[in-house]
């Protein structure tokens, strides 16, 4: 049996029909065709012809089985079968919603009875048929090609478990004390270059600080935060909470730069009421 799976061909189906007609066992058929027996069982279950009006003709026929399999692979995708849902997703993408936000909001709002996960939306964005819409330009990274999942670098080293949002004291989460900040990065469209803005909101007073950055490199971003907050008294800069973006990977510099002992990155989502 081959270690690399390939689709069953018409020649395989013709051989399978001959062996089934000869009453050969499934295990033996799998051995002769070089396939796993589960593959043979699945092929027979999916592509056997059934007709209530002509029950005498029920059975496995190679050419008909090949047509059924090909039709199944060519079946329209979910967003093709539901054009209204497709247009809604395109509209939300152009409004700069991420696929994760769109998928979650569609379920929460009950916009459509059809469930759509983030992976469906990503595949829609990058598939060949709809690539001409250039919907990737509305994603945060605006990548022309989708980066394989396994190639993404783990962030556990930059953001240890000791600095997760679950470790944040309740007094910070309840907005009872002044001096605790939450930060995020505002990224502009590609034509505007690499410039971006760090937004820092004080949780209790909602006071906002905006810092302009020339790039997304963590070092310069942390340096600007240090220069902006150094003049403040200690009680006004007790802790900072960031998301898991790599631009905040150098958060430890705040501990040395401005003596913050309660630096609290990262957590995956910023507070919805920020």
Automatic annotation (TrEMBL):
Residue ranges of coiled coil: none
Key words of the record: DNA recombination
Keyword Nucleotide-binding: no
Pfam families: HTH_38
Superkingdom of the source species: Bacteria
Integrase catalytic domain sequence ranges: 165-274
Protein name: IS30 family transposase
Organism for this UniProt entry: Rhizobium halophytocola
